[in-house]
DNA sequence: CTAGGGTTAG
């Protein structure tokens, strides 16, 4: 200040002073200093100078003080030249006062001040930020009229502006017409595509730029990285990463952040870790990316930990707190969620719609709908996400009424979108409300959302889960695009409805379309293999499991054990079991029931013992498996002990399926009186399955007296299950009481009930051959029949006598023997013998139980031809070897599989489902 | 004149 008082005389002094102020201006770092320099200029009488005014306007705008910029501009109004106009326009634009900037542009045009090439970039920027298409037209026109159409800076600004307005066509047009382009032109184009989600185009422009010889800089890279991430183009992303490593832009924060963000999208957490560690400079964006990235990868604890770590160094911004709130929501950590929300309120963060949506979601996930609603009600503006989040929050927490009310309110100012419909459809699935789903479906079609993938998937799911398989299949077929979720949904539905053949067909169709299975596919498909005994597909899925590194997942291992045990390979089931490092109660149950199916009761019991020793607490289902295993191996004492232990030691009240197992156990062991006493003394109402078990046992042991009493009990129950009716009818038939047989058959017919026809199938060279009872229509019928007759002659000599009590028709003796020949398992076995190498083992599947005579017959065959024959019937496996069977002739049992009642063993075979493909196909299936 | 980070649903 003192220097000024010394007096300023003459040109030279003035000049010195001029440069002094200039130097002072450029070294100003805060607003206070700026005010000092400003006073200096005023005191020195230089405040009329256009040059200093411009400088001051820019400086004030740098320090976010547009008011001062404006007042300086106004004071100087007489001397306005284009330079000053440009400065004020730039200042306004810089401070986000875009309409003010445009006002000044209009004013200067009115005053006939001619804009120059420095005027337009700011003006264009303001138009773009305001999304004012009218103004854009005027300005673009002015640019062309004044001959700036080829100006590099102006064109770059135009590209950027059109990009912001999502007018990529126009952006491209400007770009293409440019006589010469620099790296900014390319960057503006790439970032325009990228920011608007045109990822393929962004990558394409990036490649074009590289080909035309423009060296990519930090801007280029950080614009193209989101495109790589969005497209999940891992290799492309790594290529860009390589470029970064080679060039000098490695230390750029935005570039590193872009890489981090991309690798999070690829879920390559190790790469993220490495990039993060290598970063010398990090900023708040870096932290936000990793907090958000961890949260999206399901590492919610880590995300919260990082947040706590970060707040020591940085003050979190809106994006930080919303990122950590997502983690809170997923963890259900209401306490921390509230704490963060309070922090937001206390520090007066300006929450935009997205931030509010995230807070609503956090509260909804934590079940605090009151808090969620409060945030919702206090929002300034709502978008579709707000409504959808609030509505699905209500549904998820069972507030259906509130959700519906909100839905109606929503329709007043916004139309539902695909996500709204998906939310509503999944609610229908939850409530099994197929009528509402149909209504929604109409609305969906009206609004044209039926072609949307996620809506299609939701429709598929709701129809399948509500039992409308035809609707579901129809929906599937009309979908124009399908993704992995589509396939998984349809496969899971097939699995649920035991449409195993259709399910496996779907799996192979999916593979044909080049889609790789994931965990959900595998968990949906393995039960299909179990049902159909599709060995090859099962093994193929095991291959995928290994390739996808899913072996360590417990549910996958469990499904594998079940698959191998049900497709005939106890050995592989054991191998999988032994390789599992973590075993849960389902694992043990699967292994125990596998042993049970193969008649390895002792091993089943040993497994059960081991399970208890390793600390796994038994549940009610594992007891079903244990008693089942005992019953199939004749371990009456052990079975009884388990049954008693269940209540006494584990406090598990026996359910109907446990009683059924016990009746089966006693019946199979020939303890008919005890079985009857057991049924009569149990606290629950006996159902048809119990009398059925007992009756089968009576039949097998030839105890006609008891059978006659029991069959009456069974008939009294008047079960709708065709299996028990047929059993009763069979007993009457074997007693020769044909009148009763006819009565039952009539009543079955009247009620429209029919038993599945028997069928057997065998897989040879990856093809499945199916045989129905008395089937004559297959190609090799003649040879098969001859072979059967041949075998019968041989076994007759060895003492085989056909047991005609298994023929349940009122016909003559000869005819009865003929009927036995036609049993489907015999056809399948003979067909197998004809078409496979001598000495090789055979595996035959049957949808119903093997009949007693066929069981004996197969034992003879295994001895005559010296082959192992593995037969899976509705109940278990029978391994025939040299005249004996692994079931030790305990094949008798309930006609209908009682294990259906047990949840885990839901997928057991009962005969349903097979008939459907028999009707569709003939004898050969390509699965 | 150009760049990087946040929301719902199957």
Describe the structure.
This protein is mainly alpha-helical. Among the domains are: 655-755, Serine Threonine Protein Phosphatase 5, Tetratricopeptide repeat, CATH 1.25.40; 759-925, no CATH class. The chain contains 50 helices and seven strands. Strand 3, helix 49 and strand 4 (869-872) form a beta-alpha-beta unit. The N and C termini lie far apart (95 Å). The protein binds one DNA strand of 10 nucleotides through helix 8, helix 10, helix 12, helix 14 and helix 16.
Short description:
By secondary structure, the protein is mainly alpha-helical.
Low-confidence stretches: 1-9, 893-927
Largest sheet descriptor = 7 strands, mixed
Number of helices: 50
- Which structural class do the helices and strands define? mainly alpha
Average predicted local confidence, pLDDT: 86
Strand content: under 5%
Roughly how many Å is the radius of gyration?
A: 40 Å
End-to-end separation in angstroms reads 95 Å
Task: Give the overall silhouette.
Answer: elongated
Please report the total strand number as a whole number.
7
Estimate the helix proportion, in percent.
55-70%
- Widest β-sheet, arrangement of strands: 6-5-4-3-1-2-7
Write the layout of secondary structure elements.
Blueprint: H1 2-5, H2 10-26, H3 31-43, H4 50-62, H5 66-75, H6 82-94, H7 98-110, H8 119-130, H9 133-145, H10 152-164, H11 168-177, H12 183-195, H13 199-211, H14 218-231, H15 234-246, H16 253-265, H17 269-278, H18 284-296, H19 300-310, H20 318-331, H21 334-346, H22 353-365, H23 369-377, H24 384-396, H25 400-413, H26 418-431, H27 434-446, H28 453-465, H29 469-478, H30 484-496, H31 500-512, H32 519-532, H33 535-547, H34 554-566, H35 570-579, H36 585-597, H37 601-613, H38 620-633, H39 636-650, H40 656-668, H41 672-681, H42 688-701, H43 704-717, H44 722-734, H45 738-750, E1 759-764, E2 767-772, H46 781-797, H47 813-821, H48 824-835, E3 842-846, H49 852-865, E4 869-872, E5 877-881, E6 884-885, H50 914-920, E7 924-925
Parallel strand pairs: 3-4
Antiparallel strand pairs: 1-2, 1-3, 2-7, 4-5, 5-6
Helix pairs in contact: 3-4, 4-5, 4-6, 5-6, 6-7, 6-8, 7-8, 8-9, 8-10, 10-11, 10-12, 11-12, 12-13, 12-14, 13-14, 14-15, 14-16, 15-16, 16-17, 16-18, 18-19, 18-20, 19-20, 20-21, 20-22, 22-23, 22-24, 23-24, 24-25, 24-26, 26-27, 26-28, 27-28, 28-29, 28-30, 30-31, 30-32, 31-32, 32-33, 32-34, ...
This protein binds one DNA strand of 10 nucleotides through helix 8, helix 10, helix 12, helix 14 and helix 16.
């Amino acid at each position: 200040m003192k220097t000024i008082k010394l007096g300023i005389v003459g040109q030279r002094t003035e000049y010195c002073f001029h440069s002094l102020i200039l130097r002072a201006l450029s070294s100003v770092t805060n607003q206070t200093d700026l005010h000092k320099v400003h006073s200096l200029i005023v005191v020195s009488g230089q405040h009329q100078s256009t040059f200093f005014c411009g400088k001051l306007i820019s400086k004030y705008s740098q320090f976010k003080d547009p008011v001062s910029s404006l007042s300086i501009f106004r004071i100087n109004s007489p001397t306005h030249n284009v330079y000053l106009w440009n400065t004020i326009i730039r200042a306004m634009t810089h401070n986000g006062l875009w309409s003010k900037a445009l006002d000044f542009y209009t004013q200067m045009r009115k005053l006939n001040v001619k804009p120059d090439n420095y005027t337009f970039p700011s003006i264009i920027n303001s138009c773009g930020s305001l999304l004012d298409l009218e103004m854009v037209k005027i300005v673009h026109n002015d640019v062309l009229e004044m001959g700036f159409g080829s100006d590099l800076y102006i064109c770059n600004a135009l590209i950027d502006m059109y990009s912001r307005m999502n007018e990529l066509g126009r952006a491209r047009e400007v770009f293409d017409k440019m006589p010469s382009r620099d790296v900014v032109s390319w960057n503006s184009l790439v970032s325009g595509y990228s920011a608007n989600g045109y990822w393929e185009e962004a990558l394409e422009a990036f490649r074009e730029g590289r080909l035309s010889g423009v060296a990519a800089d930090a801007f280029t890279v950080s614009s193209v990285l989101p495109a790589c991430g969005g497209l999940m183009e891992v290799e492309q992303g790594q290529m860009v990463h390589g470029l970064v490593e080679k060039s000098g832009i490695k230390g750029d924060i935005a570039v590193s952040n872009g890489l981090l963000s991309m690798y999070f999208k690829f879920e390559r957490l190790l790469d993220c870790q490495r990039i993060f560690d290598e970063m010398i400079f990090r900023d708040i964006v870096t932290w936000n990316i990793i907090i958000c990235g961890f949260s999206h990868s399901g590492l919610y604890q880590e995300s919260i930990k990082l947040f706590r770590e970060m707040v020591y160094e940085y003050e979190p911004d809106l994006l930080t707190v919303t990122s950590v709130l997502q983690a809170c929501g997923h963890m259900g950590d209401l306490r921390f969620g509230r704490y963060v929300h309070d922090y937001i309120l206390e520090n007066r963060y300006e929450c935009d719609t997205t931030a509010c949506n995230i807070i609503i979601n956090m509260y909804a996930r934590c079940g605090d709908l009151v808090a969620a609603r409060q945030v919702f009600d206090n929002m300034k503006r709502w978008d579709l996400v707000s409504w959808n989040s609030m509505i699905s929050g209500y549904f998820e927490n069972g507030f259906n009424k509130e959700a519906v009310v909100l839905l109606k309110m929503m329709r007043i100012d916004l139309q539902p979108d695909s996500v709204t419909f998906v939310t509503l459809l999944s609610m229908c699935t939850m409530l099994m409300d197929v009528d509402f789903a149909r209504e929604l479906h109409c609305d969906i079609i009206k609004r044209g959302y039926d072609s949307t993938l996620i809506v299609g998937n939701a429709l598929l799911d709701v129809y399948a889960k509500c039992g409308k398989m035809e609707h579901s299949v129809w929906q599937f077929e009309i979908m124009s695009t399908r993704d992995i979720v589509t396939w998984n949904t349809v496969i899971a539905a097939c699995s649920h409805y035991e449409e195993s053949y259709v399910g496996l067909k779907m799996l192979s169709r999916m593979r044909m379309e080049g889609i790789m299975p994931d965990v959900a596919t595998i968990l949906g498909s393995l039960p299909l293999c179990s049902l159909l005994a599709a060995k090859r597909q099962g093994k193929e899925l095991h291959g995928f499991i290994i390739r996808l590194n899913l072996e360590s997942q417990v549910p996958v291992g469990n499904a594998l054990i079940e698959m191998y045990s049900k497709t005939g390979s106890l050995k592989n089931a054991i191998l999988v079991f032994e390789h599992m490092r973590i075993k849960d109660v389902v694992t043990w149950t699967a292994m125990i029931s596998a042993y049970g199916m193969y008649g390895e009761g002792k091993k089943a019991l040993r497994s059960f013992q081991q399970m208890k020793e390793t600390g796994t607490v038994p549940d009610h289902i594992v007891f079903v498996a244990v008693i089942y295993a005992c019953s199939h191996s004749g371990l009456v004492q052990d079975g009884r002990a388990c049954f008693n232990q269940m209540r006494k030691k584990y406090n598990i009240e026996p359910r109907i399926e446990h009683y059924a197992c016990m009746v089966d156990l006693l019946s199979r062991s020939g303890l008919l009186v005890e079985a009857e006493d057991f049924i009569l003394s149990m606290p629950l109402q006996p159902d048809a399955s119990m009398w059925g078990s007992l009756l089968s046992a009576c039949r097998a042991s030839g105890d006609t007296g008891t059978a006659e009493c029991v069959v009456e009990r069974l008939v009294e129950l008047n079960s709708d299950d065709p299996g028990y009716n047929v059993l009763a009818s069979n007993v009457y038939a074997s007693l020769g009481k044909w009148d009763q047989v006819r009565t039952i058959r009539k009543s079955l017919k009247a009620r429209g009930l029919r038993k599945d026809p028997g069928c057997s199938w065998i897989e040879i060279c990856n093809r499945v051959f199916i045989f129905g009872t008395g089937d004559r229509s297959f190609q090799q019928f003649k040879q098969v029949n001859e072979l059967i007759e041949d075998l019968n002659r041989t076994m007759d000599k060895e003492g085989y006598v056909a047991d005609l009590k298994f023929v349940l028709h009122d016909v003559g003796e000869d005819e009865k023997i003929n009927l036995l020949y036609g049993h489907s398992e015999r056809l399948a076995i003979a067909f197998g013998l004809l078409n496979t190498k001598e000495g090789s083992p055979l595996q035959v599947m049957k949808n119903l139980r093997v009949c007693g005579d066929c069981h004996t017959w197969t034992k003879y065959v295994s001895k005559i031809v010296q082959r192992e024959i593995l037969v899976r019937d509705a109940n278990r496996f029978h391994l025939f070897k040299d005249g004996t069977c692994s079931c030790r002739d305990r094949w008798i049992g309930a006609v209908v599989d009682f294990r259906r009642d047990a949840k885990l063993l839901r997928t057991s075979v009962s005969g349903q489902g097979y008939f459907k493909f028999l009707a569709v196909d003939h004898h050969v299936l390509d699965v």
